[in-house]
Amino acid sequence: MGVKVIIPTPLRQFAGKRESVDLEANTVAEALGSLTSQFGELKKHLYSDDGRLRSFVNVYVNDEDIRYLQKEKTTLQQGDTISIVPSIAGGTE
Amino acid sequence: MKESSANNPAALSKEEVLRYSRHLIMPEVGMEGQLKLKKAKVLLVGAGGLGAPLGLYLAAAGVGRLGIIDFDAVDFTNLQRQVTFGTSDVGRKKLEAARERLSNLNPEIQIDAYETRLTSENALDIVREYDIVADGTDNFPTRYLVNDACVLLGKPNVYGSIFRFEGQASIFGYPGGPCYRCLYPEPPPPGLVPSCAEGGVLGVLPGIIGCIQAMETLKLILGNGEPLVGRLLLFDALRMRFREMKLRKNLECLVCGEHRTITKLIDYAEFCGIRGEEVEAKPLDIPEITPRDLKARLDRGDDIYILDVREPHEYQICNLRGHLIPLGDLPRRVSELDSSREIVAHCRSGKRSGEAVQFLQKAGFHKIWNLKGGILAWSDEVDPSVPKY
Known about the structure:
The structure holds two protein chains of two kinds. By secondary structure, chain A is of the alpha+beta class. In chain A, 20% of the residues lie in helices and 25% in strands. Chain A has three helices and five strands, in the order E-H-E-H-H-E-E-E. In chain A, strands 2-1-5-3-4 form a five-stranded mixed sheet, with helices on one face. Chain B is built from 17 helices and 13 strands. Chain B has an eight-stranded mixed sheet with strand order 3-2-1-4-5-6-7-8, sandwiched between helices. Chain B has a five-stranded parallel sheet with strand order 9-13-12-10-11. The longest helix of chain B is centred in the middle third of the chain and has 19 residues, at 204-222. Chain B is α/β, with parallel strands linked by helices. Chain B folds into two domains: 40-271, NAD(P)-binding Rossmann-like Domain (Rossmann fold, 3-Layer(aba) Sandwich), CATH 3.40.50; 288-381, 3-Layer(aba) Sandwich (Oxidized Rhodanese, domain 1). In chain B, helix 6 links the parallel strand 2 and strand 3 (110-114). The chains are: A alpha+beta, B alpha/beta. Chains A and B meet through strand 4 and strand 5 of A and strand 5, helix 10 and strand 8 of B.
């Protein structure tokens, strides 16, 4: 399935400054695997050492949080948009 | 201080009717709504980029009591986005300047100034006084503290957060709705996500996100419309796009879930992996050189290679004529460096170059130092003509 992964601003520096990446994948795990094999630096920002998705990084398929779907096993449809949304803290100084 | 109208929360004075006339002639607000605003008590955490539009619009709208927590002073780098303050306010306490500006904007309202850091010790006592909290903080410990205090006290928390040209907004802690921990159970470890001071922010962005927070705050008070509950609004200013993600209450949430374990405020610095007040989680084994010592050695004619690990656009602001390799590019460009030479790495403040030094040490470089305090310290101690940014 052809899907689009939207890279959030704080992580773009680890993804060749790309705003989004188009790739082929059948599940969220495949999509993120393909993404991190293209951009190795991204891996430690998305996964903890034990290989689990970090708890301050949420992944959405279209507008639904994968934690409430089948997590990384969530299957993808042609044209789906995957959004990586990390927590950001900025506001003032 | 004018007290007359504040003393009668059940009616508007003639002056107030005139001041709020554009609200009063709207059926969605009207006299009933304006009196709700007058009776409302809103706490602003932070008087910075998000706090500026929040304070200005909520004061202008006639929110009867505004609490503001901040302990910073205004500096020149704030003026690019913190529109409450003017150039003549630089050096003053933000609270003092904000109180003056907001009182001038609307003398009818009460402003409570808390010159303190929000802590686990004082948060419940302060938050308890208000109906709604608008969170404009810039760090994870305070975000989690505000969230937990609001959940424990049952107060809605109007959330906004920004980074460079992206923003997030939502309402947490609304009855039956999710909280910040439902969205993000844990903060990132320090250093993994760049802060605003490192990452920068387009000045209008906090204006837009802060205005969204102000609008949602007014809607909560008025009880009108569809509040931003259960939805995470994502804003990308560069592409001028708003997107919305579904946000669900996490049944396993530690503070608002079915089996909650957090029933009182905790140590948020520890929770966020931060010891002390500084985010610098700097191990002690990074060799450093002070700007003065570096200058002395360069003046003596020592052969020292200056490595600048900032970004190209920062190099254009000012530089020490070093060789530029941005920190992110260092792993693949390390071959450009000669490990037999003495190398001093620097960045703006010394943080990124500290990471560069650690990386290069692991890569086998032994004659390498971090310029202590970066280009900021160089400007202070050696060459004031180098601009600080």
